[in-house]
Amino acid sequence: MKFKYEITGIDCPNCAAKLADKMTKADGVDSAKINFLTERLTVESTLDEATLLPLLSKIAKDFDKSVKIEK
Description:
- It contains two helices and four strands, in the order βαββαβ.
- It has a single domain, classed as 2-Layer Sandwich (Alpha-Beta Plaits), CATH 3.30.70.
- It has helices at 13-24, 49-63; strands at residues 2-8, 29-35, 40-45, 68-70.
- It is α+β, with helices and mostly antiparallel strands.
- The model has no long low-confidence stretch (mean pLDDT 97).
- It has a four-stranded antiparallel sheet.
């Protein structure tokens, strides 16, 4: 399934790419793409949203405490 979120607090396009790569490596996540300019996160995953969103939020917080993901 495909999910879209707003993601804020990323400082540069390179950081966005690194964070998306970390998210893609998580179990149950098939792909994660962050558009730095529009602050949009698009994720394809086999997980349900109730499991996925907390997982992505934890990965984001571990990467940089200022990053926030919202529906």
